[in-house]
Design brief:
Layout lengths: L21 E4 L2 E4 H10 L5 E6 H4 L8 H6 L6 E7 L2 E6 L1 H10 L3 E7 L1 H4 L6 H26 L4
Parallel strand pairs: 4-6
Antiparallel strand pairs: 1-2, 3-6, 4-5
Length: 153
């Protein structure tokens, strides 16, 4: 069963230093630099999986073409579980685009669970909004599950 999150009154947003790479996903902003540092220091903490490129390619509004050409597809992209069971690409857009253009079907990815990526949110507002968002998704899933198990009421 997917669990709801409880607000941690002691939550401390991930600090943002000059030069850090950030990824905004709506109100949720992740410090990619800190995520990558964490993965490098703790390589077994985050699942390394193989993903299908087309599962995560939804067209990109703007990409730097020279970065697409230089992208190193051997370096894993990064996914974050944004809602229960659903992950978004938060780092590696140029690599994914290069793979798509090159006809590469799969890439390796570091896949962070919701619990793992919470600490990389850069503001308390984003953290609180994320908890509310996640819990709302859990509630929806539970309602759907109940309806499927008890279709008459």
């Amino acid at each position: 069963m997917i669990k709801r999150f409880k607000v941690d009154a002691g939550f401390i947003p991930c600090p943002v230093n000059e030069g850090d790479e950030l990824y905004p996903n709506g109100i949720f902003e992740f410090n990619i630099s800190c995520i990558l540092e964490h993965i490098q220091r703790n390589p077994t903490d985050v699942a390394l999986v193989e993903i299908t490129v087309n599962d995560f390619y939804h067209g990109f509004s703007s990409l730097n073409e020279s970065q697409v050409e230089l992208a190193d597809m051997s370096k894993p992209v990064v996914l974050a579980e944004i809602s229960p069971g659903k992950s978004n690409l938060i780092d590696g857009h140029h690599r994914l685009e290069k793979a798509r253009r090159s006809g590469v079907c799969t890439l390796r990815a570091h896949k962070l669970t919701a619990v793992q990526h919470l600490r990389f949110l850069t503001s308390e507002r984003a953290y609180l909004s994320y908890i509310e968002y996640w819990n709302g998704k859990v509630k929806q899933l539970r309602q759907v599950s109940r309806a499927e198990h008890c279709p008459n009421g």
